[in-house]
Amino acid sequence: MNNELITEGKFAYKSSGEGRPLIVLHGLMGGLSNFDELFDYFPKHNYRVIIPALPIYDLPILKTNIKNLAIFLKEFYDYIGCSSAILIGNSLGGHLALMFQKLYPEKVAGLVLTGSSGLYENAMGASYPKRGDYEYMKAKAEGVFYDPKTATKEIVDEVYNTVNDRNRAIRIIAFAKSAIRHNMAKDLPNMNIPVGLIWGKQDSVTPPEVAEDFHKLLPQSNLYWIDKCGHAAMMEQPTLFNEIAHNWLKENNL
User: Fold this and answer.
1) Count of CB atoms within 10 A of residue 34's CB?
2) Disulfide-capable partner of 97 in 27, 87, 203, 253 (CB 3.0 to 4.6 Å)?
3) Global confidence as pTM
4) Which is it for the CA torsion 22, 47, 109, 80, positive or negative?
5) What pLDDT shows up at residue 130?
6) How confident is the model at residue 33 (pLDDT cuts 50, 70, 90)?
């Protein structure tokens, strides 16, 4: 497995395996390492897993929105020579997958969404970002998971450093506003492709009713629950997440 980050021009990504492309999209506060178990699993089952680093903190402030992330993803597709792929997205990455499908439907064979924004999310709270308060950020990071221990010191430090970087904090707010503006409720009934919804039962960021609304609005969706699991199922329950996703892909001939 090639676990090294490939950097070429404006693109940085990880790639492993050969076969049907699975492009994995991380969330606003997430990173490529959130999908380590998935990156190890699917190349063994005839998939090429590609995880691009999204330019969340690099876009000009006036272009810091979901639509411009989708344009970036189209450029990335073209760069790696990908005509169609299955998209797997967590949180903001799920929202990006939906926006990309809306703009470039011919390039998406199927979607796997976990803890996706796009309809509603309970972000960091009205007082976010509360800069300078490590314990506050630690509590918020732990609250993303069912088991607070999943929020390692490394994860908490990264979140803390991000919100205390003024340029990054501004972009987090810009994306949060963009997520509200780009609500996908009216678009979902027109997405006639297979969608696998894999949701943590204890997700407090995009609660279970959000998954149920996605399921009602998407014409070809299947909804799967993972118990004792919060907002990032692929991190907190990776073995079960991978099994569910893989079975769903096989059932849909993807």
Assistant:
1) 22
2) 87
3) 0.93
4) positive
5) 58
6) confident
Q: How many CA atoms lie within 13 A of 74 on its CB side?
A: 15
User: Is the C-alpha dihedral spanning 73, 76, 81, 82 positive or negative?
Assistant: negative
What domains can be seen in the chain, in order of their start residue?
A: 6-121+182-251 (3.40.50.1820)
Secondary structure (H, E, C), the chain: CCCCCEEECCEEEEEECCCEEEEEECCCCCCHHHHHHHHHHHHHHCEEEEEECCCCCCCCHHHCCHHHHHHHHHHHHHHHCCCCEEEEEECHHHHHHHHHHHHCHHHEEEEEEECCCCCCCCCCCCCCCCCCCHHHHHHHHHHCCCCHHHCCHHHHHHHHHHHCCHHHHHHHHHHHHHHHHCCCCCCHHHCCCCEEEEEECCCCCCCHHHHHHHHHHCCCEEEEEECCCCCCHHHHCHHHHHHHHHHHHHHCCC
- Do 86 and 80 contact (CB within 8 A), yes or no? no
Give yes or no for a contact between 111 and 98, defined as CB atoms under 8 angstroms apart: yes
* Top-confidence residue, 192 or 167: 192
The position carrying tokens 């009205």 is: 126
Structure tokens at 113: 């969404």
Contact 232, 116 (CB under 8 A): no
Contact yes or no for 151/144 (Cβ under 8 A): yes
